[in-house]
Write a structure and sequence with these properties.
175 residues; alpha/beta; Maf protein; 5-stranded mixed beta sheet; disordered C terminus
């Protein structure tokens, strides 16, 4: 049977079932991740909040992203995505935090960091001590594609899913 549920509904169902909470730190997506999640009835059961930190100052002040990381790596980097997710998880006290940073375009890209580059990170409480976070990079493409690709799955928690749930989520995310 083909599911007609939207990805955000499936994510919500899984978070609710596993009794996990989620928060989101966004830059280039400008609140679209949080918007998708909160458009699901009952999302307040698992979604604690989000922070749109478009400027470097907001990333540093709200999410405690290190100035050193912003200067050394730039806002669109794996290091900053990790720090955004960690800061967001701590800010909201969620079990899981996701972050997005990138160059939405149509201008502002470079050869090293092209328009429509998206860097995402997920962070769990268990990652805090190990200073780890899972990263996903989206390559160059059209701006519309960038805004369509912010999938908010907590991949670190997939090991808690039964095989049918895991397969459903992997298919949903195109993995």
């Amino acid at each position: 049977m083909i599911s007609t549920a939207r990805p955000e509904e499936i994510l919500g169902e899984l978070l609710r079932r596993k009794k996990l909470t989620l928060s989101a730190a966004e830059s280039c997506t400008g609140g679209r991740v949080g918007d998708k999640i909160t458009n699901v009835s009952g999302s307040s059961d698992y979604f604690l909040g989000g922070a749109v930190t478009y400027s470097n100052e907001a990333k540093a002040e709200l999410l405690k992203v290190k100035e050193k990381s912003l200067k050394a790596h730039g806002a669109v980097s794996e290091q900053v995505a990790k720090e955004m997710a960690l800061g967001c998880r701590k800010l909201f006290g969620s079990d899981i935090a996701v972050s997005t940073t990138g160059i939405a375009g149509p201008t502002g890209g470079s050869k090293e960091k092209p328009v429509a580059r998206l860097v995402r990170s997920e962070r769990r409480k268990e990652d805090d001590d190990r200073q780890k976070g899972l990263l996903r990079r989206q390559g160059a493409g059209e701006r519309g594609r960038l805004h369509a690709c912010h999938r908010t799955c907590s991949e670190p928690h997939r090991e808690r899913l039964d095989p049918m749930e895991k397969e459903r989520l992997n298919r949903l995310l195109g993995i």
